[in-house]
Amino acid sequence: MILAAATTRPPADGLAFTAVVYGLVLTLWTLTSTARGTALSTTQHAAGAVLGLAGAGIGAAYLVSLAGGHRPPSTGTNVGYALAAILLLPLAWPRGAASMKPRMAAGSACVAALALTVVVLRLRVTW
After folding, report:
1. How does pLDDT run along the chain (127 residues), one tens digit per residue?
2. Residue 24 burial by CB count (10 A; 0-12/13-18/19+): exposed, middle or buried?
3. DSSP-derived secondary structure for 36-105
């Protein structure tokens, strides 16, 4: 019985691993823009959108699993992580901030990418 519970994989397991690796790469990429003081490129904005979509998909998959009856040890924590995975990047990613300095926009993108990476990792680990 315990072995069966230990081998249960969380939803979107492969996507979560991919999002963590992708998020770390995006964090380092935006960190270089921050260090150089350059504005975010269109490619970096597109990469942030892809990471945001992955986070939303992962969060939705976990919420569907919770709605389907799965109960992890800390359900409230996992609901919070799932909602954060859905909402974090759309709310935190700098978009169209003409008044924002390039270094500040790149720095906030770096923090947003790292935060989503940590949220997805914590959601995966606490499941």
Report:
1. 444 444 567 777 888 899 999 999 999 999 999 999 998 999 999 999 999 999 999 999 999 988 888 888 888 898 999 999 999 988 888 876 566 788 888 999 999 999 999 999 999 888 8
2. middle
3. HTPPPPHHHHHHHHHHHHHHHHHHHHHHHHHHTT---TTHHHHHHHHHHHHHHHHHHS--S-TTS-HHHH
The residue length of the chain stands at 127
d(CA 28, CA 31): 5
Task: Report residue 23 CA to chain centroid gap.
Answer: 7
What's the CA gap between 125 and 127, in Å, rounded?
A: 6
Structure tokens at 47: 């990469």
Q: How far apart are CA 30 and CA 108, in angstroms?
A: 9
75 within 8 A of 66, measured Cβ to Cβ: yes
